[in-house]
From TrEMBL:
It comes from Actinacidiphila acidipaludis. The chain crosses the membrane at residues 176-194. SMART domains: HATPase_c, PAS. It catalyses: ATP + protein L-histidine = ADP + protein N-phospho-L-histidine. Its EC number is 2.7.13.3. It is a multi-pass membrane protein. This is histidine kinase.
Amino acid sequence: MRIRWPRRVSAQVLLMQLAITAGVTALATGLFLAPLSHQLDDQAESRALAIAQAVAADPDVVQELESSRPTRNNPVQAEAERVRKRTQALYVVVMDTHGTRWSHTDADRIGDPVSTSPKEALSGKEVKQIDSGTLGRSARGKVPLRDRSGRIVGAVSVGIGYTSVRNRLLASVPGLLLYAGAALAVGVLAAVWASRRLQRATHGLAFADISALLDEREAMLHGIREGVVALDPQGRVRLVNDEAQRLLGLGGDAAGRPLDELLPPGRTTDVLAGRAEGADLLTVSGGRVLVANRMPTEDGGAVVTLRDRTELEQLGRELDSTHGLLEALRAQDHEHANRLHTVLGLLELGLNDAAAEYVAEVADTHRASAEEVADRVHEPLLSALLVGKAAIAAERGVALRISSATWLPDRVVDPRDLVTVLGNLIDNALDAAASAVEVELRAERKTLVLRVSDDGPGVPPDLRDRIFTEGWTTKQAPAHRGRGLGLALVRRLAERYGGIARVGARAGGGAVFTVVLPEALASAEFTAGPSAAELFAAAPGGAR
């Protein structure tokens, strides 16, 4: 029948008291038995060693070992058995330099190798130890066997049965009962103290309930899709769940380490450490847009929750792009209607040649614009982005021009990152431009340089660093998402590639945004030009 563990705390505490009492009693008894056991073991080892020394000192044993063979009735066996019976040893084994037995309690084992290594004794050392062999556990003494000239010709191993040592030890146990009684009394007092403290600490809950609460907490923390980071008053990480490790790029050894050691300096670290105040704070970590909330705890620590808004932010930007494309399509619809009316009028007037010439001119204009982009930018995603942004710019009355220095072969490592960088820079330029935006994409070995300039009001020198900070913007946020993340994402992606993102002044007024991305291209097969270090230094705002 299976015995069930009681649920009530009082019953469990009683069992704990009994266990503590028994443990203390066993500890007290062991404190007395351990030295005694060691002393008895040492006496048995010394006795075995003395017997082995006496056998090794007998010159007849050496002579018989050298003049006979290891058989059942050899003279060495007879002498060893005589000594064993006289001293009541467990065994007396004489062996040659190869470890072969010349004597043994079981005559059938003569001629076989010994069961334990004789290396130390055959090297000239005397050995005392407790070990197990073919006759069981024993206290052993091993000494080298030398001839008259001092040359080692074998070894003698003597064992004292460990059972006799154990019997002597058990015979001393009754005398320890007095000490065990004192240990029991100490155990009872310790158990009573522990039970009372346990009752206060558990608030009357059953241990099963406490265990269930802990299991539920672990399952909840590691199962939710929000990141949770708990900090102690010194800023060390107490707890971090799986989602927080993913969002922040932390390893499994984050617990117990300071926050400033785990994360690089920046807004994310400031938000988690409480140096940035507010609710629903936006931050960018590893290219992800996070919303953070920090709640202090009573002991001076804090719990920070993190929500991943990267997909929502991307959807919002796609919604903005779609809205811009719809506006451009509406305008182009009117433009196409006007052109169709013009063609219809020419046909009705009988000017067929003029109508054909007009249609060819319009088609060539659009095709030439798209072909120019495709010829200079061989990456399909980037060229498609530029064509789409050109349509949006035309709707806003802004000319989107591709610089004559633009040249990007089809060897981009991750075009999605470049779409994010270039799309954000063009969107900001279109918002600020008065009449024109110029885009330049230039490859130099494995480094890619992106420049987007506009003829808008420009960026004051004191704000050129702040505009790349998460959440900072001068624009009104749309209803479906926040502002102040586009340029922060641009800088974070640039830093991921080991590059820079800077803004400077444009000659004639306006702003020039420059992003240098080392290792953004798949190969270094390109014409010679300035090095990556020169590109860094030439970027507006200086090298970093």
